[in-house]
Amino acid sequence: SVPLYGQERGEERQALLSAIVHAYFDYTRAMGFRFLHMRVPPPTDEYNYIFESRSLVVRLRASLHLAHWYSRLLLKAREQNIIYNYDGGSTATSMPNFPLALLQPGEIAAENAFKDVDTRHLDPQTQELVARVMVQQERCFVVHLQNPNTVAMLVPDIAPLLPSNVASDRRQFVGVCVAHRLRFASLQQAKFSTIVLVQRMLAHQSKAHSKFDQEGGLPGGGFYPRESYGYRGMPPPHAPMGG
User: Fold this and answer.
1) Cβ contacts of residue 184 below 8 Å, gap of 6+?
2) What is the pLDDT of residues 21-80, one digit of tens each?
3) Which end of the chain has a smaller Cβ tally under 10 Å, C or N?
4) Residue 85: beta bridge partners?
5) How many helices (H) and strands (E) does the chain have?
6) Which residue, 136, 124, 167, 182, is CA-closest to 43?
7) 3-state class of 154 per DSSP?
């Protein structure tokens, strides 16, 4: 991964990224979500690696490392009682609580293409990596946020929803990056791109706050949605998280 500050050790960077994801788990649980879904994209799906074009060998290694990190991340979250439990599977179709409706048509097509991939034209090293990923037991995860035997303790969220085309979903985020030629392949590129994205989000939030104030400042429900919608009291049971 790209260094965050340039001087930190790999384990320090991993600890910070893990803390960010654990905070998201804690937040979605407090908002009343019961499940959260995580998926490592198949390495043959090159369009899901949005920050830099990668060779198949690099994507294969990244798939193995990301799945291993997800497993350790969830194990630690369970040990610290941030989540109740989690299930892992090799595909979404092998898991009863991972509805395919959560995946885009292109993602489903990528899963099918990876299942039927022909490795005969690949070199021996790449064939070995493909075989390792093929037998990988856990690439899709269903996170159980709530203990089914207890009453969920919800935390009220009185913050208004502030829609932004930077953070609403992956496709819009990629579109913004392409339109502004943003890159993340080096520390310098990542810093510049992050500044551009943050400034854009701040501008959208300022505009949204102005409209919110003009309409009387009525509080609305806010949690991490895939699109700009809010629920109070009975939020949807599934919180998305994509790989």
Assistant:
1) 2, 51, 52, 190, 193
2) 999 999 899 888 899 999 988 876 665 555 556 677 777 777 888 888 999 999 999 999
3) N
4) 144
5) 6, 4
6) 136
7) coil
Distance spanning both ends of the chain, measured CA to CA? 14
Residues sharing a CB contact under 8 Å with residue 202, sequence separation 6 or more, in sequence order: none
Residue 80, token pair as written in the block? 């610290």
Whether residue 64 contacts residue 130, with contact meaning beta carbons closer than 8 Å, is answered with no
**124-137 tens-digit pLDDT:** 777 777 777 777 66
Q: Are 111 and 105 in contact (CB under 8 A)?
A: no
CA distance readout (Å), 79 to 15, 19, 27, 58, 150: 16, 14, 17, 31, 18
Quick one: which of 142, 9, 130, 14 has its CA closest to 72?
Answer: 14
Helix or strand or coil: residue 35?
strand
Token couple for 91: 């595909």
